[in-house]
Amino acid sequence: MAGNAGKVHVVRVTKTGYVDKQGRRRDYSSAYLRRAYRDGGKVKNETVANLSALPDHVIDWIDAGLKGQQLVPASDAVTITRSVPHGHVAAVHAMARELGLPALLGPPGRQRDLALALIISRVARPGSKLSTLTWRADTTLGADLGVAGAPADDIYAAMDWLGGRQDEIEAELARRHLAPAANPARMALFDLSSSWLEGSHCPLAARGYSRDGRKGTLQIEYGLLTDPAGRPVAVRVFPGNTGDPGAFTEIVTMVRDTFGLARLVMAGDRGMITSARIQALNQRQDGTARPDAYGWITAPRAPAIKKLMADDGPLQLSLFDQQDLAEITSDDFPGERLIACRNPVLAAERARKREDLPAATEKLLAPVIARVQAGKLAGAGPIGVEVAKVISKYKTAKHFEVTITDASLAVTRKQDQIDAETALDGFYVLRTPVPAGQLNAPAVVAAYKNLKYAGRDFRHIKSDHLDLRPVFHRLEGRVKAHVLICMLACYLTWHLRRALAPLTFTDQTPPAQASPVTQARRSADAQAKASCQHDGRAALPQLPRPAGPPGNPDQQPGPVHRHHRHRAHAHRADQHPAPGLPPHRRPDPADLEVARTPPARGGKTSGQTRNRLPNWP
Question: Which of 102, 359, 575, 611 is in Cβ range 3.0-4.6 Å of 540 for a Cys bridge?
Answer without folding.
Answer: 611
